[in-house]
């Protein structure tokens, strides 16, 4: 019988909690470290809801990974008895000639996804909460909806513990270094040796692993919640949405039906110099873009928010995540730079990280994301 592998998971958040679950499911000895505690709101995993979708306008190569994630979302819910995801559909909207809308159509055709195509007239009649512009179209993704980020992270971490994992909460990792064919993880309490370490520290990646050959740009993300002025947004089947252009934005009705959460694209996020000193104060001028979007596209929402929150996300120049071993340190598996569209894929990325930590490779189609031989940032 092969020796049981000992694997550290550094950062038990969006990706790390899933990696811990998948590793523990396979019988690995898992030790997790988090500078806070799983489920915290100090990185990217807050805000009550995140979009889950099957159609992908960034790159159709994500679709097989989304299907893998879809199955694992179901499995985690079955294992824990918690509703972590609700399928209500999602509208991907924008000018019909926009390249992201064309990519969406290519992805649904290539992978035979359950969808509807709505022109501007059909969209306006079926979903009157949106103001439609000439030339707009929408793809209604049926295998889509929302996931609950805080609950998901906490649930995956607890499930990993039920399967034997041990998680050190409020324990920042100070250094990760190759050691005798494995890796040493140092905290303020000392150093422990592992066969491998999965590093999923989100906005702290540049601090913990300085000198990475790829850039990860840390950005300050604002979410804001707005109350509808009528009943067009109410109901359990009210869909989330993403608008591609001219201003990229997304929205999700809150699970209680009281408000609608809006978020913006990377270009509208300010850089974060130090993730330990995140400015969590939202100034009035930062809300002007939300009011403009509501006035142009979402007339049923009151233009002043009832709630705002600030989070952090990491972006690569290509907007493609980094997943795989570090060059020259094969026992250190990095998962970083998810560029604002990683949460829906998190069970798949956790499973892939477990593949690489235990088997040195993954059967999943990650060539376009892998750190191996990658030169882009």
Description:
By secondary structure, the chain is of the alpha+beta class. It folds into 2 domains: 6-46 and 150-216 and 318-359, FAD/NAD(P)-binding domain, CATH 3.50.50.60; 88-145 and 217-315, D-Amino Acid Oxidase, subunit A, domain 2 (D-Amino Acid Oxidase, Chain A, domain 2, 2-Layer Sandwich). Helix content is 24%, strand content 29%. It is built from 8 helices and 21 strands. It has helices spanning 14-25, 63-80, 99-110, 120-126, 149-162, 205-208, 288-297, 346-359; strands at residues 6-10, 29-33, 50-52, 85-87, 90-95, 115-119, 136-141, 145-147, 166-168, 173-179, 182-187, 190-194, 196-199, 217-226, 240-243, 249-253, 260-264, 270-271, 307-315, 322-326, 329-336. The strands form 4 sheets. Strands 5, 6, 7, 14, 15, 16, 17, 18 and 19 form a 9-stranded mixed sheet that branches. The chain has a 6-stranded mixed sheet with strand order 9-2-1-13-21-20, with helices on one face. Helix 1 (14-25) links the parallel strand 1 (6-10) and strand 2. The longest helix is centred in the N-terminal third of the chain and has 18 residues, at 63-80. The relative contact order is 0.20.
Low-confidence segments: none
Percent strand equals 25-35%
CATH architecture of the largest domain: 2-Layer Sandwich
Please give the radius of gyration in angstroms.
21 Å
Q: What is the H/E string?
A: EHEEHEEHEHEEHEEEEEHEEEEEHEEEH
User: Can you give the mean pLDDT?
Assistant: 94
Biggest pleated sheet: 9 strands, mixed
Spell out the CATH superfamily of the largest domain. Answer: D-Amino Acid Oxidase, subunit A, domain 2
Number of strands: 21
Briefly note the structural class of the backbone. alpha+beta
Number of helices: 8
Distance between the termini: 40 Å
Domains counted in the coordinates: how many? Answer: 2
């Amino acid at each position: 019988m092969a020796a049981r592998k000992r694997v550290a998971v550094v950062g038990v958040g969006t990706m790390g909690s899933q990696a811990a679950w998948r590793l523990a499911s396979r019988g690995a000895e898992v030790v997790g470290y988090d500078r806070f505690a799983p489920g915290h709101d100090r990185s990217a995993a807050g805000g009550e809801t995140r979009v889950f979708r099957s159609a992908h306008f960034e790159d159709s190569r994500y679709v097989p990974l989304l299907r893998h994630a879809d199955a694992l979302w179901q499995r985690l819910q079955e294992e824990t008895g918690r509703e972590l995801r609700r399928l209500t559909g999602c509208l991907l909207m924008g000018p019909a000639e926009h390249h992201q809308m064309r990519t969406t159509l290519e992805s649904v055709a290539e992978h035979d996804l359950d969808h509807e195509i709505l022109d501007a007239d059909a969209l306006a009649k079926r979903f009157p909460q949106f103001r439609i512009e000439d030339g707009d179209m929408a793809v209604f993704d049926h295998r889509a909806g929302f996931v609950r980020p805080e609950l998901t992270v906490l649930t995956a971490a607890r499930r990993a513990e039920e399967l034997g994992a041990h998680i050190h909460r409020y324990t920042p990792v100070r250094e990760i270094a190759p050691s005798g064919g494995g890796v040493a993880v140092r905290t303020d309490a000392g150093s422990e040796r592992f066969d491998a370490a999965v590093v999923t520290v989100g906005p702290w990646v540049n601090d913990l692993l300085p000198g990475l050959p790829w850039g990860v740009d840390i950005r300050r993300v604002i979410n804001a919640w707005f109350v509808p002025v009528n009943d067009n947004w109410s109901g359990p089947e009210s869909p989330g949405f993403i608008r591609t252009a001219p201003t990229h934005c997304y929205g999700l009705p809150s699970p209680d039906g009281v408000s609608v959460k809006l978020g913006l694209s990377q270009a509208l996020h300010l850089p974060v110099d130090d993730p330990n000193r995140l400015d969590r104060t939202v100034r009035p001028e930062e809300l002007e873009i939300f009011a403009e979007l509501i006035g142009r596209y979402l007339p049923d929402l009151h233009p002043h928010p009832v709630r705002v929150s600030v989070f952090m996300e990491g972006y690569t120049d290509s907007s493609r995540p980094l997943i795989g071993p570090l060059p020259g340190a094969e026992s250190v598996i990095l998962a970083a730079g998810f560029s604002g569209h990683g949460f829906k894929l998190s069970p798949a990325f956790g499973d892939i990280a477990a593949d690489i930590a235990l088997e040195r490779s993954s059967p999943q189609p990650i060539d376009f994301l892998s750190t191996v031989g990658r030169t882009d940032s």
